Each structure stands twice: as structure tokens, then as C-alpha cells.
């Protein structure tokens, strides 16, 4: 303010267009900014953010402070008391799947690390503070139970499937239904039925994110999913070599064909840092996915190197423990952060409907 006036009205005016990252709406109007108090030139306020935006909480707080300092340079201090903003209970109560964002993790082919990435993104979002569920839609080769070292049959309680719990994260997988090592022969309608049950008849609870580990290749499951619920979009995992990138391009075309938004590409097995000599070996190449993403106008979310601990922890059913590894945690955290930042940016340009998707 030119005249240097400082009161709650000028502070409110400066913050009127500050948007909640999830809804893209004014945080002040939604009463997520409150308790505005001035003591001389020192400002304090409460900022309530939902658990959905947990991975970007510090960015949002920094942006709020920056805006205040730019618009009201006479402020000498801004103290933000960040709290969790509770959303209102869903009007339909306990019925069906209520997930704010449903994200499929797919690729053109198997063995590129889809399941590892789906599991790591789920764990990363959860560790940041979001409420996350993980569904294994790879009915032919379910690997989520193994990655988390959990087994057993989901219980049926009051006609609903109780998901299996992995450290507070609900999981659903065909691997819980079929004894390990047994082959299942699926025809189209059965496949559709199984996926429908996983979504509709499972007591997921209220989720910020449902992450779906997709089977490789064809679009059957993608089509089924896109008919069942409003998917937020898909993350495509690929390795850097040219042949794998061609498959990723096909996967992107497939998602686009069934109207699933592509949220980004991740390059997995992107180089290997030799633990003995510290030299970097680009076993499958490096950087190919980033280039391809730019060509296809798809966001690039990050790179994960080849790391023996990823394979060892996965085999040992301890996928979550990669977040205890200082070489790996920042890699997966960065991908989660980029993913949620991009979603928040889309919310800012096109605020989502107030109603949560209900199945
Ligand atoms: N970045 C990585 N470094 C080392 N091993 C990896 C990496 N990503 C995946 N793996 C391993 O590769 C194998 C295949 O990964 P997986 O996630 O099951 O692939 P997909 O679901 O695409 O078939 C697993 O043994 C997994 O532990
Ligand atoms: Mg898999």
C-alpha cells in the first residue's frame, strides 16, 4: 500500500486471490485463512490446508509469505500457523469409493518398474501426510502384496471387502484372492467384474489419493477404469532405451484414446551409480524419457536410477523402507512433489467441481 496503511482489511485484500492448492478457490473465502492478527508491523495468521496437498504444504506457505511481503512490504514479520483443514464429511457417508484423486500408473510393457513406482508413489504421498490407498489392477501378475510383504484374504464385513492394511495404507489386489503361484484365466467380463468389485465393493474409506498399479500393455483395464470412475489421470513409467520409449509412446496414445489424462512420465532405471567406484553407467541410457515427454507435450516427473536396494527391498516385501535410504527417499519424494504440484496447478486454472467423485 502506498500510504503504508496496515490493518486486517489490507491484509485480507492482499490475500483475497490466494488459492487453496486442492480446490483452486480463495483460501480466505473458504475460511482456510483465519485468525489474522497484527501487532504493529508483525502479522500472524492461521492457514488450514487439506491432507491432499500435504506434499506441497511448504511451497504453499512460502507462496503465501511471498505474496504478503510483495504486496505489503511494510510487514516486518509473517508468522503462519499451519493446520490441517478438515473437509466436510461426504454427504453420501460410507458408500463406495471416495477418493479425491485417482491415479493410474502404467506403461507399455512389463518389467519397467510400474509396480515399484506405484507402490513408492503411494508410500511417498502417505509419508508426506496424505490419505492414500493402493489398488493392484494387474490381475495377471499381481505384485503389490509381495512388495509390501502382506498376505491373507481380505475379510468381508457387511457385504463390503475390507482392504488389507500395510502400515495404515489400505491395499487391494487379486494376489489376496488367489493362492500364490496359481494361474488365473480371465475373460473380459470377469476382468471387468473384478476391477469393479475392487473399486465399488471395497471399504477404502475417505482417500486423498487412490493409486492404481496397471497391468502392462493393452487398454482393457484402462477402458474399464475410465468407464467406472473419473480418473484424475495416468503416470507412465518407462526405461530410457529407444525400444522401451516406443512402448511408452504407445501407452500414452492408449490412455489418450480412452480419454485418460496423462499426468506425466517417469524414467526408471535411469543410469547406475557404481557403489564401488562412484562412476555413473547409463545401462539403458539416460534422459530419453525427458525428451520424449517434451515431444509429446507430457509433463516429466523425474528419474529413478538403477539401485540394488530397490530390487532387494521389493523382493523382501519392504518397499516402504526405501524411504529410509538417504539415496532413494529424495528421488521418490521429488516425483510425488512434482506430481502434486502439477495437479495443484491444474486446479488453479480449472477448479474441480465441488462434489467428490462417488462410485
Ligand atoms: N530403479 C530400479 N532399480 C533396481 N531395480 C528395480 C528398479 N525398478 C524396479 N526394479 C526391479 O525390477 C523388477 C521389475 O519391477 P516391477 O516394479 O515389478 O515392474 P513392472 O510392474 O513394470 O512389471 C523388480 O524386481 C523390481 O524390484
Ligand atoms: Mg507390475
Structure report:
The protein has 359 residues and is α/β, with parallel strands linked by helices. It folds into two domains: 8-84, Fe-S cluster assembly (FSCA) (GMP Synthetase, Chain A, domain 3), CATH 3.30.300.130; 98-349, 3-Layer(aba) Sandwich (Rossmann fold). It has helices at 8-15, 57-71, 114-128, 144-148, 188-200, 220-228, 242-257, 288-296, 308-315, 329-349; strands spanning 33-39, 42-49, 77-84, 98-106, 132-136, 156-157, 160-161, 164-166, 169-173, 206-213, 233-238, 262-273, 280-281, 300-306. The strands form three sheets. Strands 4, 5, 8, 9, 10, 11, 12, 13 and 14 form a nine-stranded mixed sheet that branches. The protein has a three-stranded mixed sheet with strand order 1-2-3, covered by helices on one side. The protein is globular, with a radius of gyration of 22 Å. The N and C termini lie far apart (49 Å). The model has no long low-confidence stretch (mean pLDDT 90). Adenosine-5'-diphosphate binds at residues 107, 110-116, 143, 268-269, 304, 306-307, 310-311, 314.
Radius of gyration: 22 Å
Return the CATH architecture of the largest domain: 3-Layer(aba) Sandwich
Strand content of the residues, in percent?
15-25%
Number of strands: 14
Sketch the major β-sheet: 9 strands, mixed
Q: Topology as H/E string?
A: HEEHEEHEHEEEEHEHEHEEHEHH
